[in-house]
Amino acid sequence: MTGGTRRSARKGTCALRLALAAGALVTPMTPAAAAPAGAGSAGPPAAYRTAPDAQEIHGARTATATPPLVPSGRTATDTIAPGERKFYAVRLDDTSDAYVSAVAAPRPGGTPGLRDGIDVSLRRADGVPCGPSRHRSFLAEGGAYPLADHAERLAGTGGPCAAAGIYHFVVARGDADGGDPTPVALELTAVTHHPPVTSNSTAPPGTWTSEPPSEPAGSAKGIAGGRGFNDAADVRTGTWKDTIRPGETRFYRTPVTTGHQLFAKATFGDAPGRVPYVANGVRMGLNDAARGHVTNRTDGYQGRAVTVPLAAPPPGRDTGLEGWYYLQISLNSKAGQGGSEAVPVTLVVTTAPARSAPAGPPGPRTHRAPDGTALRTTADSPEPDGRLKTVGYAGVGTGTALLLGLGGWYLAARRPEARRPAE
To answer: pTM of the predicted model, to two decimals?
Structure first.
């Protein structure tokens, strides 16, 4: 079981037709301004907030140039235009796991092209890749909200990037055809982590449960989400209340340690006025302590309460770095029809000891979408047990008897006609 993407019944055929009629099937979203809980309209959504002590650097446009060094343990900023590829240098030792991340934040009101997004990868200075690149799309989940992911080098696993030295972190932006060609802001970080002596995974990959524990007791507390990773509001196990305006993204952080799982759900309340159905109108995303993508969940929104849940696997070298995990909630800009009235949001956060998924019969297969989230598809039907076989055979027998009976009735009805003398 994975924290994969499941479509709700709201995205059925009727909802899809309504979305197409309203012209809101694909709607970009913009970064958020963090307003106090309960605040109403207060100007347009603000841009993503970078670290106040960030160092501005300018990536090299070719691998043969000398890329600037991403400072270890600090944040660097740059911008990237559509179709551009930028190279940055990172210095790695041969004993630490290394994670180099990029946050891409479109400007408020921007509308990226359908193929716009970023790819991040880590390579040796001679161009040999350390592993596959990771792709994040601005419109993959319905809006131009800030997105982030990292490339990694795990120590002690062999491969072409095991040695100490200078490596290249590469960020490439997609095509802006049909969208906003404005450069987007980049925020870059490089962190290292000494791997554990023994594996810190509590269960093999794929066996953790996605069933949440009981909800935390106590009343909801007011909170104001941040505008980025750097000012994310601290939340722990409990229930929290905030508000969000159309086009906003709010950030929250909560600690997740080895042997524990994070469960969260965001309930977006009723919107004032009449709201057309917006596919992917609400979203909740999650990144790990190294800003690596964990999961992204969306649902349709039509101005009525809707809940978006997610579940994360326990931290481990194959699932995510332990530490602060970052939750983001977003509300599509079209949910307000151009207005800025706030919508109430209730955020339930639970961190609990990791539990293995219960064993069960074969179910739907899990496939991965381009953004790494899980998609459910119909599985091969398991062999029915004896009871089901008996019911099936009985059904076939009943149907056959019914058809034979109808045929006999028809022939009996025809016989008087056949014996009647001609007039």
So the answer is: 0.75
Give the whole-angstrom CA distance, residue 199 versus residue 172: 33
Smallest CA-to-CA distance from 86 within 115, 51, 117, 119 is with 119
**Residue 184 C-alpha from the chain's centroid:** 20
Relative to beta strand 184-193, strand 97-105 is antiparallel
If you count them, how many residues does the chain have? 423
Kindly state the helix (H) or strand (E) to which residue 130 belongs, with its residue range.
none
Q: Give the Cα separation of 255 and 321 in Å (integer).
A: 11
The pLDDT tens digits along the chain (423 residues) read: 444 443 443 444 333 333 333 333 223 333 333 334 334 455 777 689 999 999 999 999 999 999 999 998 899 999 999 999 999 999 999 999 999 999 999 887 667 788 899 999 999 999 999 999 999 988 654 567 899 999 999 998 889 999 999 999 999 999 888 888 999 999 999 999 988 776 554 455 557 888 888 999 999 999 999 999 999 999 999 999 999 988 889 999 999 999 999 999 999 999 988 888 988 889 999 999 999 999 999 999 999 999 999 999 999 988 999 999 999 999 888 787 656 689 999 999 999 999 887 655 544 433 333 333 443 333 333 333 333 333 333 343 444 444 444 445 444 444 444 344 443
Q: 145: Cβ–Cβ under 8 A, 6 or more apart, which residues? A: 29, 30, 31, 106, 138, 249, 283, 285, 328, 330
Q: In sequence order, which residues have a C-beta less than 8 Å from that of residue 150 and are 6 or more positions away?
A: 99, 100, 101, 102, 120, 134, 290, 291, 292
Our CA angle for 338, 339, 343, nearest 5°, is 125
The one-letter code for the residue type at 147 is L
* Among 56, 41, 112, 122, CA closest to 292: 122
Cα(118)–Cα(148) distance, rounded to whole angstroms?
9
Q: Which two tokens stand for residue 128?
A: 């040999």
CA–CA–CA angle 237, 352, 371 (5° rounding): 90
Instruction: Supply 358's token pair.
Output: 């219960």
Return the SS3 of 394: helix
